[in-house]
Design brief:
It is an enzyme of class 3 (hydrolase). The chain contains 16 helices and no strands. α8 packs parallel to α14. The termini are far apart.
Length: 296
């Protein structure tokens, strides 16, 4: 799903939640961007949201007199703004919203407030609970900070959220996520209650524990996340997003890289995200500069 999200950002050159859902649907139905050629291990929340999305597409097509075969290609901004992309049921807080997040802060990190808000929205379209929205906002902010050269001490500062409230547009975090931002994960791992569960609050806490305790080693952090048990691959994937942004590609174990499927494709995709993100930033600055001038 992270590859679906990355491809959406690149193809649309912007944050278009509708297009993200289309590509998630393609993954679900046709194996789009899957290493196996088919969808596997989809969570219940994501599956439900994608079924709801398809229902809304059919209804919207009928109401707007659009042939259903064109709905996946919808690009008219007026129509896109009319479509309700928040397809999740209430109180859905699975870790699926968090494990696919990285392309958003990678694309928008030059504008932190946009990166943080879009991070939250990227999760909310399939996971409707505020905890999911805020977990994605907080983790997105950490990835942004890592990309902007913050030290590990700064990233794990118990006051990181307070010091960067402008990045969050001064919107409060859910108390459970705020507790994590204040360092609830800084304890003795599994023995102290750290669990890599499917619940997004537990998953976020586990990933940050792995990052905090990894002795500055990506490999050790991944193994620590996996060895927590439970939802091992997702916990490691969440850890890897922040750790990868912080340590960089050069610190990934070479023996692991040799076995990465479609490695060249993903390297190219990563460069493309960086390029399109820079282009977006220039367009964004151009769009706001007349407004700034008019207010002087």
């Amino acid at each position: 799903m992270a590859l679906c999200l990355a491809n959406s950002l690149i193809a649309r050159r912007d944050f278009i939640p509708y297009d993200q859902l289309v590509r998630y649907k393609w993954w679900h139905k046709f194996g789009y961007m899957s290493s196996t050629g088919h969808c596997f291990d989809i969570g219940a929340a994501t599956s439900q949201s994608l079924r709801e999305f398809e229902k809304r597409q059919k209804l919207f097509a009928t109401q707007s007199n659009i042939p259903i075969r064109y709905m996946d290609c919808l690009s008219n901004y007026e129509l896109l703004n009319q479509f309700n992309v928040y397809c999740s049921e209430d109180e859905v807080a699975g870790n699926g919203a968090l494990m696919r997040l990285a392309p958003v802060p990678l694309f928008f990190y030059r504008t932190p407030d946009r990166a943080v808000e879009y991070s939250g929205c990227s999760g909310q379209i399939t996971h409707g609970d505020k905890k999911a929205y805020d977990a994605c906002r907080y983790y997105g902010a950490l990835i942004v900070a890592a990309l902007r050269g913050y030290t590990k001490e700064q990233l794990l500062d118990d006051d990181f959220y307070v010091k960067h409230k402008k990045w969050f547009n001064d919107k409060e975090l859910h108390p459970d996520i705020e507790s994590i931002s204040k360092g609830s994960y800084k304890k003795n791992g599994y023995q102290a209650g750290i669990r890599g569960k499917g619940y997004i609050v537990k998953a976020l806490e586990a990933a940050l524990w792995a990052f905090w305790s990894d002795n500055n080693s990506f490999a050790k952090g991944v193994l620590a996340a996996v060895n927590l048990g439970d939802d091992t691959d997702t916990t490691a994937a969440i850890y890897g997003q922040l750790a990868g942004a912080y340590y960089g590609y050069q610190e990934l174990p070479e023996r692991w890289l040799k076995h990465v499927y479609a490695k060249k494709f993903m390297e190219t995709l990563s460069k493309w995200i960086a390029y399109e993100g820079e282009c977006w930033q220039k367009r964004y600055e151009s769009s706001i500069s007349p407004l700034l001038t008019s207010n002087i």
